Automatic annotation (TrEMBL):
GO terms for biological process: DNA topological change; DNA-templated DNA replication. It holds the Pfam family DNA_gyraseB_C. Belongs to the type II topoisomerase GyrB family. GO terms for cellular component: chromosome; cytoplasm. This is DNA gyrase subunit B. It is an enzyme of class 5 (isomerase). A type II topoisomerase that negatively supercoils closed circular double-stranded (ds) DNA in an ATP-dependent manner to modulate DNA topology and maintain chromosomes in an underwound state. Negative supercoiling favors strand separation, and DNA replication, transcription, recombination and repair, all of which involve strand separation. Also able to catalyze the interconversion of other topological isomers of dsDNA rings, including catenanes and knotted rings. Type II topoisomerases break and join 2 DNA strands simultaneously in an ATP-dependent manner. The gene is gyrB. Mg(2+) 1 binds at residues 437, 510. Mg(2+) 2 binds at residues 510, 512. Residues 431-545 form the Toprim domain. Few gyrases are as efficient as E.coli at forming negative supercoils. Not all organisms have 2 type II topoisomerases; in organisms with a single type II topoisomerase this enzyme also has to decatenate newly replicated chromosomes. Binds two Mg(2+) per subunit. The magnesium ions form salt bridges with both the protein and the DNA. Can also accept other divalent metal cations, such as Mn(2+) or Ca(2+). It comes from Candidatus Yanofskybacteria bacterium RIFCSPLOWO2_12_FULL_43_11b.
Length: 697
């Protein structure tokens, strides 16, 4: 009672002191350090790499303006990064109003840069003018060096603040800017820059800015590595790169580059023999991952243009339905890039373009240029129309199959599958669905689960490989249909994430080759038909233990060989500390020498390690007295209590959340490993065979 009264007085006191002095004013770059996520999206690995993108974008703006022709990014020891270009160099003269060097203003003041007036840059990816200053604010140290012949100017900073004025430090015969920074470990827990992520991003930028050389150097190891990207073909080369492992439906890549109402529109596209497509959109070279007005204009225009051409050339009859947007984009690889003044992005990370004029510009350009291209390339046009008409027929068949499934569900009152052991909770945020392999594991899971929040859906056999299967064939598969109904979201056009019945969907398969195969088939299903569940973080993989290790009454579980060795090492230490010198154990008796022992088997245990401490070791481990190790071959071998304790109990279990770091690469790998072509899969396996680990886990 006293504690409650004390708390009440504290709250009352705090309320009484709420005056002007309690209002916090963040000055300079303090807002960035206070709320870094507002400026770079997050303080995780993505945010760390965003620092490079911000500095690189400044150099790229110089390239897009025609002043820079080479950009270099160097990964240095101690998590330092250096970005340099051969552009004009950041101005270093004194600002007439603020009486500071323009370089210092750009590095220490939010919304200070050359992106706000039309004279400095015609187009720019660094819309908000916060790039360099944000990087400075989130770095323990930064140095900016400017070459503006004949002079070199430099300034250094610590945690966003200059350590001295801008100084002239030498002479030069070139122009450009060099920025070196070291991220702040108090902001970013992980300071490990990923070379693959950087190469993928900068390769993309090189494709989008043809004629500009982009070099990446990794100097963090003794042997430095360097990579150079330079593409004369621009986004046409990019489309060809994305389709390098695919069977293309027409040889000629459609390409247009045209200015419309002061917006430069550049589009390249080509169809491949695939069900899924690849759409990449950019605004001022910024990858708009959530699309926006330019992508909307492209989708609308291509649908209208192909319908008009199909009607005009009798591919579609009067009674036929129009081709849908999904029909014309099935198997389409497309790059949509616009460059415009004063783009309206949503958020500092610029995931979506909101400029309405971009839609009109793209729509007008595609309507005119694609219609003309189809007339000039009749063979390519015919091959495209054959592809989209096939997609249309498949869509109508799939729609009929889908409606049959949903109508059947509705007639049955959306009856859940009989094999589903549902949970009693109706709150999706606390409900979990475990997809398990076979009836044996299903039985143990049903008995061992928390019935209030955990549902179990056992699958019989291996589900269909949906990589090359259309939706009508997929919905005819009983196990997949049961899963869709259990989740409650429906599928395709009817998909509704709000109707998801469980916010954790957990794939729980055996730790063997068959289990891995089933898990891969399920991942393919979710990636191709339920990507929203992955994007929103609803899909997980359970990690059942591989080993049960028992010594006396003490039982521990190891989830991999590394865990097993760690547990055994701990037991060795206990033996060394407390039982050194003892040779006999309860279930053993000596034979002819101290290092030969007879092992007494224990029922239900696959492996017995029952030797004296420090006896002659096997090749891979030192065996310990009285330790029984059981290797689980499947979930069905565990009793319900063990399954709960190791795999189902939220306080003990290990769940891996499924995420897609690089959608393009994930798409390619799924296609290679799960597609119908054998040769690419064989080549992939041969290439990566030496680096594989946990093959049977």
């Amino acid at each position: 009672m006293a504690k409650k009264e004390e708390k009440k007085q504290a709250v009352s006191s705090a309320g009484a002191s709420y005056t002007a002095k309690d209002i916090q004013v963040l000055e300079g770059l303090e807002p960035v350090r206070k709320r870094p996520g507002m400026y770079i999206g997050s303080t995780g690995v993505e945010g760390l790499h965003h620092l490079i993108w911000e500095v690189f974008d400044n150099s790229l703006d110089e390239a897009m303006a025609g002043y820079a022709h080479a950009i270099e990014v160097v990964l240095m020891p101690d998590s330092k990064v250096r970005v340099s270009d051969d552009g004009r160099g950041i101005p270093t003269d004194i600002h007439p109003k603020l009486k500071k060097s323009a370089l210092e203003l750009a590095a220490t003041t939010l919304h200070a840069g050359g992106k706000f007036e039309q004279g400095a840059y015609k187009v720019s990816g660094g819309l908000h003018g916060v790039g360099l200053s944000v990087v400075n604010a989130l770095s323990t140290w930064m140095r900016a060096e400017v070459h503006r012949k004949p002079d070199i100017f430099a300034q250094e900073y610590k945690v966003g603040k200059p350590t001295g004025p801008v100084k002239k430090v030498g002479t030069t015969k070139k122009t450009g800017t060099i920025v070196t920074f070291q991220p702040d470990p108090s902001i970013f827990k992980d300071l490990n820059f990923d070379l693959t992520t950087i190469l993928n991003h900068l390769r993309q930028q090189a494709y989008l800015t043809k004629g500009v050389k982009v070099t990446v150097k990794d100097e963090r190891e003794k042997i430095a590595r360097d990579y150079t990207f330079y593409f004369e073909g621009g986004i046409v080369s990019y489309v060809e790169f994305l389709n390098r492992t695919e069977e293309v439906k027409h040889k000629t890549v459609f390409y247009v580059a045209k200015e419309q109402d002061n917006i430069f529109v550049e589009v390249a596209m080509q169809y491949v023999d695939e069900i899924s497509g690849k759409e990449l959109s950019f605004a001022n070279n910024v990858h708009t991952t959530e699309g926006g007005m330019h992508l909307t204009g492209f989708k609308s225009a291509i649908t209208r243009t192909l319908n008009d051409y199909a009607r005009k050339n009798a591919f579609l009859k009067e009674k036929d339905d129009n081709l849908s947007g999904d029909d014309v984009r099935e198997g389409l690889t497309s790059i949509i890039s616009v460059k415009l003044k004063d783009p309206q992005f949503e958020g500092q990370t610029k995931a979506k373009l909101g400029t309405p004029d971009a839609r009109t510009a793209v729509e007008n350009v595609i309507n005119a240029e694609l219609a003309d291209w189809l007339e000039r390339n009749p063979l390519d046009a015919r091959q495209i129309l054959e592809k989209v008409l096939l997609a249309s027929k498949a869509r109508l068949a799939a729609k009929a199959a889908r409606e049959t499934v949903l109508r059947k569900g509705a007639l049955e009152g959306m009856t859940l599958p009989g094999k589903l052991a549902d949970c009693s909770s109706r709150d999706p945020s606390e409900s979990e669905l475990f997809i398990v392999e076979g009836d044996s594991a299903g039985g143990s899971s049903k008995q061992g689960r928390d019935r209030r929040t955990q549902a179990i859906l056992p699958l019989r056999g291996k589900v269909l490989n949906v990589e090359k299967a259309r939706i009508d064939k997929m919905l005819a598969h009983q196990e997949i249909r049961a899963l869709i109904i259990a989740m409650g979201t429906a599928i395709s056009e009817e998909f509704d994430l709000e109707k998801l019945r469980y916010h954790k969907i957990v794939i729980m398969t055996d730790a063997d080759t068959d289990g891995s195969h089933i898990r891969t088939l399920l991942l393919t299903l979710f990636y191709r038909y339920f990507p929203q569940l992955i994007d929103k973080g609803h899909l997980y993989i359970a990690q059942p233990p591989l080993y049960r290790i028992q010594k006396g009454s003490k039982i521990e579980y190891a989830y991999n060989d590394k865990d097993k060795e760690k547990i055994l090492e701990g037991l060795r230490k206990i033996v060394a500390d407390g039982q050194a010198g003892k040779l006999k154990t309860k279930n053993s008796k000596p034979k002819t020498s101290d290092n030969e022992w007879e092992v007494t088997p224990v029922e239900g245990v696959n492996e017995i390690v029952d030797e004296p401490p420090f006896a002659k070791a096997s090749e891979d481990e030192t065996k310990i007295a009285g330790v029984a190790i059981q290797r689980y071959k499947g979930l069905g071998e565990m009793n319900p209590e063990q399954l709960w304790e190791t795999t189902l109990d939220p306080s003990n279990r290990v769940l891996l959340q499924v995420t897609v770091k690089d959608a393009q690469e994930a798409d390619r790998v799924f296609d290679v490993l799960m597609g119908s072509e054998v040769l690419p899969r064989k080549k992939f396996i041969q290439t990566h065979a030496k680096s594989v680990t946990n093959l049977d886990i």
